[in-house]
Amino acid sequence: MNKIILSVIVLVFSLNFLHAEDNTDKKDAQSRFESLSKLTNVIGTVEKYYVDELKLQEIVDKALKGLMQELDAHSTFMDKKYFKEMQIQTNGEFGGLGITVGMRDGALTVISPIDGTPAYEAGVKSEDIILKIDDKSTLNMTLDEAVGLMRGKPKTPISLTVVRKLESKPITIEIIRDIIKIESVKSKTIGKDILYLRVTSFDKNVTDGLTKIIKKNKDTKGIILDLRNNPGGLLTQAIGVVDLFVDKGIIVSQKGRDSENEEVFNASYSKTLSRMPLVVLVNGGSASASEIVSGALQDHKRAILVGQKTFGKGSVQVVLPITSDKSEGIKLTIAKYYLPSGRTIQATGIIPDIISYPGAAVQAPDMDFAIKEADLKKHLESELEKVDGKIKKVEKTKNKKVDERVITDEDALKDNQLKTGIDILKSLIITN
User: Fold this and answer.
1) What is the pLDDT of residues 3-18, one digit of tens each?
2) pLDDT tens digits for 288-342?
3) What b/e sequence results for 370-380 when a residue is b if at least 16 CB atoms lie within 10 Å of its CB, and e otherwise?
4) Catalytic: which of 75, 288, 294, 315?
5) Is 356 labeled as catalytic in the residue annotation?
6) Listed residue (308, 334, 143, 314) closest to 235, CA to CA
7) Among the options 299, 331, 419, 426, which is catalytic?
8) Has 288 been annotated as catalytic?
9) Annotated catalytic residue: which of 65, 125, 188, 313?
10) Any catalytic annotation for residue 193?
């Protein structure tokens, strides 16, 4: 009975191909028919002889998953369970860790942890390779399976075993799942002249959020846009952000297999909000929409990019239903993004204008002891008095309240990439 069903499926597919391709010659049509017959034979053979009994639907689903996985790292088959999970994620609140992951060279890799989430607080880092989720190995695991394992009820524990650069052995990170709520736009001031803008992800509120902040800070002379560890988001928001700083020309283009279907997005003069000097911070956790923004600003010579090479995710996916009730579907890569200069992001990433590594900034040595020879004796006498207890100890002053809206010089010294960006921006402000 099942063989009859499979044969009917092949016949229907073949007829569809023949009707859809009027100009296809008979040889090509025959080749299509033979290919589909081969697929039918394999499915039938597995159903009949495989060691464990499998239903036809299970075999077809496994075949679809394998097909989509072989295409690229981002195309996938979505069964009813995964389709439902995707809808939960789209609603904006879900129990999880707060990391964006992808497949790189067949390994489950952290693109970036999202600021303020359980993964971020636990110490997960961009480019960590996830070796195990709890006690399950990620080798040969699909991206969707991994994401499904990491999601779960809030306040439940999970353990990630990761391989990290410069670490001699794997690291185990314990995390407690929580409801993931993302504050996509944050702002601070640096001194009197510089506005610091942090975008953690490109959700629907980013362009409006940045617009309000920039308008509110009219006295600003320069902007630092921090896109580090930003995994991307909505294309419309990436275009909107670039449009705030660029008044004409191409922002990004989208090209598929058919060149006639190329879509080009241009900047609009009326939407341009700021022409002041701009520095953009990026790293290996900057992906997708972040790369479109930073790459477009770089191509237009509108900003100086500081940091490290970005992730390299420049492909376009669409969700297409494959069942009549739209309960299952496929996520399929249909195009690639191209920057104004014509270069692609996919698998290459964006190389910053100034390479800067994370960590604390290099400081001059402590010069408190650099005294003149004539003062040396007097200085040593006072130091001796301290040892003998003749000088009263100075009472500790109470810590001043920290203003979270301001980045101090001390804060900047703890972040080498930010400090480099500030120094470059100050130079741009002077020359401007």
Assistant:
1) 555 554 544 555 554 5
2) 999 999 999 999 999 999 999 999 999 988 888 899 888 899 989 999 999 999 9
3) eeeeeeeeeee
4) 288
5) no
6) 314
7) 299
8) yes
9) 313
10) no
